[in-house]
Design brief:
- The chain is 48% helix and 7% strand.
- It is an alpha/beta fold.
- The chain has 4 domains: 30-131, Orthogonal Bundle (Fumarate Reductase Iron-sulfur Protein, Chain B, domain 2); 136-193, no CATH class; 206-330, Rossmann fold (3-Layer(aba) Sandwich), CATH 3.40.50; 338-463, Glutathione S-transferase Yfyf (Class Pi), Chain A, domain 2.
- The strands form 2 sheets. It has a 5-stranded mixed sheet with strand order 1-3-2-4-5. A 4-stranded parallel sheet has the order 7-6-8-9.
- Strand 8, helix 24 and strand 9 (442-445) form a beta-alpha-beta unit.
- The radius of gyration is 22 Å and the shape is globular.
- The termini are far apart.
- Bound molecules: iron/sulfur cluster (2 copies).
- One iron/sulfur cluster binds next to helix 3 and helix 5.
- Residues 51-57, 74-75, 107, 110-111, 113, 115 line the site of one iron/sulfur cluster.
């Protein structure tokens, strides 16, 4: 990553590189030209001014850890936002530093001054998408991703094609040739990350509570989760049912908009958010349960996303208040379903959008340690992202791979045989990294572990998993859950 980003002629950016607590970069007068930001929700000058340039966030920032460059740190990026607010044009190098941010929000957790970097980068990304013209290849890649990933029906069409590609040996041939890697690294990254396609079990519109009903919840099935990890959705419905929830699965639900909002595609995100609110509105559920960290964090922020929309602003705020990660709702309800012993050594990986964005760290750990026989181990440097970050690992394959490899090494060092996490992106990214490392660590979503314990399945049902985290017992099994 370049370090060429002193956006004005004489800013002594180099003086700040790699140092902590040095007061940050100095601002210089803005030149003439089209300013970086327009008037539609630019990054808030007030929030920018909250940064006191202390540098406490730097060691938790994955891009700063990788490259040691000030402009690839939260403080540096906030400086770039300030210079944009001062009238600086949106240069290619400025965009490059914003694009390199994973949006992991580790800096939000680390910041002692409460800087809301999440709001700042979200506003900045929307400006970049509106006001910066990307290179043709980048535009094409993004257009392809956003024409496919947020559309469950289109993903369903792709599944059999991908399945044939994976099963006929064509994948091996393409990978061995190295051609894709050479001529289209992003496509090669996408191809290498694609999890093996498994059979999908359609969830019924209602999975009734087992025994006395304690809550009526709606369930988001998601795009990537639904297409590539159907076992996670099936396990979520079974566990919620076992814990006394009627689980309503609206047929007309689609993408929640997380991928769009995290990539500055504001109009598209607003459209998806409105549709998601509408899909759940008619169900009368008390909570909307989400098992994908990135989706949950976006849905909890619908009030901000739809604040300008008179028809939806108040509905969005009400809706956001009902959104719960599956681990949150299970801890809130408290366990009633019996947990059977699961003798396994597991490590838990915090998905950034669960830990940093939603502050959900204790609940998954509490659920896992509530399983008799399960030993939970912590992973070194838990605050550092695995490199998944939505579609970051496709758009930025090299740094994502490096971060993934670091995470895989830290996971292997725990000695765990099972890696547990709560986001499809992390499952895909970490699986690829563990494979590269040649480890035999199996993977599962938190609810899959709970599901296996509640159903009295042996630990081998989880530890003999392939990298897909779609357990052999998952999709093909009944949604009925024995106590
Ligand atoms: S969101 Fe993550 S990658 Fe971006 S500046 Fe913050 S810590 Fe760094
Ligand atoms: S974002 Fe927070 S931690 Fe980072 S430099 Fe600014 S005030 Fe310090």
């Amino acid at each position: 990553m370049s370090n060429d980003t002193a956006p004005t002629g004489g800013a002594p950016v180099g003086a700040t590189h790699g140092t902590l607590g040095d007061g940050g970069p100095q601002l210089t007068p803005a030149p003439a030209g089209r300013p970086a930001f327009d008037d539609h929700h630019p990054p808030s000058a007030e929030l920018v001014s909250d940064c006191v340039h202390c540098g406490f966030c730097l060691p938790t920032c994955p891009t700063y850890v990788l490259w040691g460059e000030e402009m690839d740190s939260p403080r540096g990026r906030i400086y770039l936002m300030q210079s944009g607010l001062d009238g600086e044009p949106l240069s290619d190098s400025m965009v490059q530093h914003f694009d390199a941010c994973l949006g992991c929000m580790a800096c939000v957790t680390a910041c002692p001054s409460g800087v809301q970097y999440d709001k700042l980068i979200e506003a900045t990304r929307a400006q970049v998408e509106r006001r910066h013209r990307r290179a043709p290849a980048d535009r094409l890649l993004r257009a392809t991703i956003f024409a496919l990933f947020p559309y469950p029906r289109r993903l369903r069409v792709v599944r059999p094609v991908l399945r044939a590609y994976q099963r006929t040996g064509l994948q091996r041939l393409v990978q061995r040739s190295g051609l894709l890697q050479r001529f289209a690294p992003s496509l090669a990254a996408m191809e290498a990350l694609a999890p093996p396609v498994r059979a999908v079990e359609a969830l019924p519109a209602l999975v009734p509570a087992h025994g006395e009903r304690r809550a009526v919840v709606g369930m988001l099935t998601g795009c990537v989760q639904g297409a590539f990890f159907p076992g996670v959705n099936a396990a979520t419905a079974r566990v919620l049912s076992a814990e006394g929830c009627d689980v309503v699965v609206p047929r007309n639900q689609g993408c929640c908009g997380a991928l769009s909002v995290h990539n500055g595609r504001e109009k598209e995100a607003v459209r998806f958010a409105r549709a998601t609110i509408d899909a759940f509105a008619a169900t009368g559920v008390s909570y909307v349960v989400v098992n994908a960290a990135g989706c949950g964090s976006s849905m909890k922020e619908y009030a901000e996303l739809l604040a300008d929309d008179p028809a939806y602003a108040s509905r969005a705020a009400d809706f956001a208040a009902t959104v719960r990660d599956v681990s949150e709702i299970l801890v809130e309800l408290g366990p009633i379903a019996q947990r059977h012993p699961m003798p396994v050594v597991a490590a838990y990986h915090d998905a950034c959008h669960l830990a940093h964005a939603q502050g959900v760290r204790l609940q998954p750990r509490s659920l896992l340690t509530g399983i008799p026989g399960l030993e939970l181990r912590e992973i070194a440097d838990p605050e550092i992202c695995c490199g998944s970050a939505g579609i970051y690992n496709v758009l930025n394959p090299e740094p994502a791979r490096e971060l993934g490899d670091r995470k895989a090494a830290n996971i292997a060092a725990t000695g765990a045989t099972l890696l547990v996490t709560a986001n499809p992106g992390c499952l895909i990214q970490v699986a690829a990294s563990l494979d590269r490392l040649g480890t035999r660590v199996a993977m599962a979503h938190t609810v899959e572990v709970l599901d296996a314990s509640i159903r009295g399945l042996p630990a081998s049902s989880l530890t003999t998993l392939t990298r897909t985290a779609a357990p052999p017992h998952g999709p093909a099994q009944s949604l009925r859950t024995p106590r």
